Amino acid sequence: MIKKKLMVKRILNTPEVYYKKGAIACLKSIEATNLLLMVARPVHESEYFAKVEKYTKEKTTLIESIDIINQDQIIQLREKYASTKLDAIVAIGGGSTLDPAKILRILLSHPELSFEDLKTNQFITDNHIKLVAIPTTPGTGSETTSVAVIYDAHGHKFPFTNQGFMPDMAILDHAFLTTLPVDLLHVFGADIFSHAAEGTLSMMSTPIMKSISSSSLDLLQLGFAQLHENPTDVKALGNIMYSGYLAGIVQGNAYVGVGHALAHSLEQQIKISHGAAILWVFKNVLGWYQKQTDKPIYQEYLDSWSSLGFEDYSSTIDPQAIDVDQWATATMQDPSISTSPIRFKQEQVIELIQWILQHK
Questions:
Q1: Which residues belong to any copy of the Alcohol dehydrogenase iron-type/glycerol dehydrogenase GldA domain (predicted)?
Q2: The whole model's pTM is what?
Q3: Residue (of 18, 43, 39) closest to 29 by Cα position
Q4: What's the CA gap between 248 and 243, in Å, rounded?
């Protein structure tokens, strides 16, 4: 309703959220007839897609199987479906599927807009196409944010923020997590942790965000404790997925910080996944902050990180393969750095990078 920036706090969140194992059945009851299913290719090729088809068989559906796509490819999808009557886009996958769907929904609703327009107008809310987000990984929180991170044609990641990106509905069905190996769950868990922690530390944080962050981390600790006790405990997967959802609320409203800026620029430079980059840098980001400030919260986060066992799943990266100046420059250009708890200059980013490299 409010379409301008005001100096007051707000909470943006997906208005309808359905959750539990088997919640995918909600697809049968959505008030939409003509659907575009944007599905991550691994999900499309899995046994779970049969359930999606089961609950959408009474609808008119088109299917787009998605790999990681960039801005130019999203424009191509807009051209492909420009003359198609769609009531809703149903995005099923991780952030690399949900985020393009957020952007495509706006570009189909407003054919006159470009990516440059999305950088300057953050309040495009009158979309005639609904968006249903079904995460199949627990880490990104994309199902509940107005942020979409997308690659440009040169392989650079850029986070767009727009109120119109917020899904109309999210379905959290942790049945999708049952085939994920434990090492991948820890990669996603580290991303959840970083969203909750950096959202708390952010300059945009509030008591409400800190409370949600605390609940997210409590669920994350519970989920992994249950998983370590019983690797087939489905309730553990539910708690991890719900933790990711809550951390997404924190990320989407308080944003993140230098840890994510470093991760985005590192994954771009040496071509690793976002989760792997977070696993590699985040503990030492917390350690550097703790050294600079001596605030107890950083030690608390370090202890929690260790108790969750994330160190056992960190990637092996050759520090010699990293160009420090390039990493620092790209980090300074990443929008995530702007909400860090301190105002970074390039020399501080280089100091932080050197700290990370020395403690590997």
A1: 16-173
A2: 0.95
A3: 18
A4: 8
* Percent of the chain whose predicted confidence (pLDDT) is above 90: 89
Which has the minimum average pLDDT: 7-11, 94-98, 151-155?
7-11
Distance of CA 356 to the CA centre of its chain: 23
Residue with token string 């981390």: 217
Q: pLDDT: is 194 or 6 the higher one?
A: 194
pLDDT tens digits for 165-183? Answer: 999 999 999 999 999 999 9
For the domain made up of 16-177, the CATH class stated in words is: alpha beta
**Topology of 182-358 in CATH?**
Dehydroquinate synthase-like, alpha domain (1.20.1090)
At 209, list the tokens: 């965000």
CB-based contact 77:104 (threshold 8 Å): yes
pLDDT in tens, 45-101: 999 999 999 999 999 999 999 999 999 999 999 999 999 999 999 999 999 999 999
Q: What is d(CA 342, CA 285) in angstroms, rounded to the nearest whole number?
A: 13
Domain ranges in the chain are 16-177, 182-358
Closest CA to 12 of 242, 338, 255, 244: 255
**In the structure encoding, which two tokens stand for residue 250, read together?**
């924190």
The CA distance from 78 to 86, in Å, is 12
Q: State how far Cα 85 lies from the chain centre.
A: 29
Residue type, 266: L
